[in-house]
Amino acid sequence: MLKLKESLENIGNISIVAPDKEKSATGHGITLNNPLSVFDHYYKDEFFGVAIKGTPADCVKLAVSSILKTQPDIIVSGINLGGNTGYNVLYSGTVSGAAEGTIMGIPSIAISLNTYTEPNYKPAGYFIKHAVKKVLTNGLPKGTLLNINVPNVKDHSEIKGVKITEQGNTRWKEILYERTDPKNRTYYWMTGEKLLFNESSLKDESAVKENHISISPLQFDLTDYDNINTIKKYNFSYKPTEN
Question: Is the bond leading into 164 cis (omega within 30 degrees of zero)?
Answer without folding.
Answer: no
